[in-house]
Automatic annotation (TrEMBL), chain A:
Protein name: Uncharacterized protein
Origin superkingdom: Bacteria
Transmembrane feature ranges: 42-63, 93-117
The species this protein was found in: Candidatus Falkowbacteria bacterium GW2011_GWA2_41_14
Key words of the record: Membrane, Transmembrane, Transmembrane helix
Lineage: Bacteria, Candidatus Falkowiibacteriota
Length: 135, 177
């Protein structure tokens, strides 16, 4: 490096940025961080929504089939026809009804339904947060 | 949580502030107006933050200048405010430039001039944009020719020959005044 040129360039006035530029940059980076986080959550909730819909439909069909096969309807119709017997042996009756319930498919259905509703709720919330950042 | 955010803000500012003025000054040389230079500077640091994990280059400063160069050129391209060839393409250079040699230092009399500061600023602004950037990157930011070539996306020999031409032009401009 030529010494005199080095000295010469020490006289050069570099333009000064405004005092609040650093603040503006940190604010924009923060905004970008927020936007990125929202995008990530939107992706997660969308995936949750996409997978929970067919899962809920399939598990609901399974619940219906298993309920029809379990004879639960016959037990429940007892309430209407022989309500006195049901009242007398209500503890046994409840146990029988519970035993005949298709618990696994019902649990799968409820979980899928829960994921669907939660994803929908959170997705709506995140979309509301994302809208002002988009502009 | 609030403390974390404050600490993160502090770290971010510590990372940005040493590079803020040089990057702003570099961008200013492209766009020549403060509001646009500020917008582009913001964009550059947002891009830097976005790609922080992806940076493979060891020299962060040179990488940042390279991002600033690309962002400025994109901005000018969109705006179409300047003849773009002025910044990008110097393939029409005289081949003799490659062998042009003037390694002599600046005469002391020029440095001794009373109004050297004003004269220098005026002379630098008269230089072609790429020559101006080469000199400023070399003397103000202490980049090597290799780093300047990487920042400006040009061959090393082009940068070297332009540097030689720019120093000669600058000497002539300063001697004339």
């Amino acid at each position: 490096m030529n010494q005199n040129f080095t000295k010469l360039f020490s006289y050069f006035d570099s333009p000064e940025p405004s005092k609040n530029l650093l603040e503006k940059i940190t604010r924009r980076v923060r905004e970008e961080q927020r936007r990125w986080a929202i995008k990530q959550r939107l992706a997660i909730f969308s995936i949750g929504l996409i997978f929970s819909v067919p899962a809920a439909i399939l598990s609901f069909q399974l619940v219906r089939t298993e309920m029809a096969a379990s004879g639960l309807q016959e037990f429940l119709s007892l309430i209407m026809t022989d309500s006195e017997i049901v009242m007398t042996y209500w503890q046994n009756f409840i146990l029988i009804v519970l035993e005949s319930l298709p618990t696994v498919s019902l649990a799968v259905f409820l979980v899928a339904l829960f994921i669907f509703l939660e994803s929908l709720k959170l997705l709506t919330r995140e979309l509301k947060n994302f809208a002002p950042l988009k502009n | 949580m609030k403390n974390n955010l404050k600490d993160e803000n502090k770290t971010m500012k510590l990372l940005i502030s040493p590079h803020l003025k040089p990057i702003y000054g570099f961008i200013f040389q492209y766009v020549k107006n403060a509001p646009d230079a500020e917008d582009i500077t913001q964009e550059v640091f947002v891009k830097a933050w976005r790609n922080l994990k992806k940076i493979k280059q060891k020299n962060f400063k040179a990488w940042l200048f390279s991002v600033a160069r690309n962002t400025s050129i994109d901005f000018l391209r969109k705006k179409r405010a300047i003849p773009f060839s002025e910044f990008e393409n110097e393939s029409g250079e005289n081949i003799l430039d490659e062998t042009l040699a003037d390694e002599t230092d600046l005469p002391d009399e020029i440095l001794a001039k009373q109004n050297i500061k004003e004269q220098l600023n005026a002379a630098i602004n008269k230089l072609p944009p790429q020559s101006r950037l080469t000199l400023l990157l070399h003397y103000k930011e202490n980049f090597t020719f290799q780093e300047i070539a990487e920042i400006l996306h040009e061959p090393l020999n082009t940068v070297k020959s332009r540097y030689r031409r720019a120093t000669i032009q600058l000497k002539i401009l300063l001697s004339q005044n």
